[in-house]
Specification:
Helix content is about 25%, strand content about 10%. With about 260 residues, the protein is of the alpha/beta class. Strands 1-2-3 form a 3-stranded antiparallel beta sheet, with no helix packed on it. Strands 4-5-6 form a 3-stranded parallel beta sheet. It is globular and about 55 Å long.
Length: about 260
């Protein structure tokens, strides 16, 4: 994208970006969902400056890391109170693979819903787009089913008269294409890269029920929707659905890893 735009950015302020020629642009994409509080927010800059002056890298526990873990446990719903920090979450590439690794520990085959969960090898099979073309062979054990995208229904049906045909199709796919020993279902509460697709109310609850029936994990990818971008702290809260794993990034890191 940077190559095609032929822009060379010099600085940012709030929602604005300035290039090296002094031209001003409004960043309507918020740094691909990363700059949730804008650019050069004075409180953010001050906090970063204080921390960099003390220590800027390391794997040991610090006062601020402990405080962050505690705050996350308070913000996340239900009993989601354990955190795993990973590199490059700001891009969203690590959260999906990490979640899949959690599921892998179950030593079971996978039934994972399509969407966008990063571009690294572990989640390429989960991408429902042409990005993965010519990048094979892909890791085995992943199966894709159409999302509840009612405006462009893959089954050419109409909601609610379809009676959740997409969920039934997902269950049927598991029945005939897998060993039915499923590790996890992974889903975006709202699909971002696919075009900001908002599923009908009740979709996540049905996937929660399906995961429970299979003895599988429900992994919700909130790289894009997390931290207030949908009007609630996390998109899953709109349906009061509690996943087993919640992946976050982008706005959470604000560009720093």
């Amino acid at each position: 994208m940077a190559l095609f735009s032929q822009l060379s950015i010099d600085r940012g302020e709030g929602a604005l970006l300035y290039d090296v020629d002094g031209n001003r642009y409004i960043d309507l994409l918020a740094g691909v969902g990363v700059a949730s509080i804008g650019y050069a927010h004075p409180k953010y800059v001050a906090a970063m400056q204080r921390q960099i002056a003390r220590v800027h890298v390391g794997s040991f526990t610090t006062e601020h890391r402990a405080a962050l873990v505690k705050l996350l446990a308070e913000l996340t719903p239900g009993d989601l109170n354990r955190s795993q920090f990973l590199l490059e979450w700001g891009r969203g590439d690590r959260g999906g693979p990490a979640a899949r690794q959690v599921a892998d520990r179950s030593y079971r085959s996978h039934r994972l819903l399509g969407g966008f969960h990063g571009k690294t090898g572990g989640v390429l099979p989960l991408l429902g787009s042409s990005f993965k073309h010519a990048l094979g062979p892909l890791m085995p054990g992943a199966y894709l089913s159409p999302y509840a995208s009612c405006a462009r229904c893959a089954f050419d049906k109409t909601f609610p008269s379809c009676e959740w045909h997409c969920v039934d199709s997902c269950a049927h796919k598991i029945q005939i294409e897998t060993t039915k020993d499923v590790a996890a279902i992974i889903v975006e509460p709202i699909q971002g890269t696919a075009g900001n697709v908002v599923p009908p109310a009740g979709y996540l609850k049905l996937l929660r029920d399906l995961a429970d029936e299979l003895g599988a994990l429900l992994i919700c990818d909130e790289m894009i929707t997390g931290f207030g971008r949908t009007g609630k702290m996390f998109a899953i809260e709109h349906e009061s659905v509690l996943p087993d794993v919640l992946t976050v990034g982008k706005g959470f890191g604000g560009g720093f890893r």
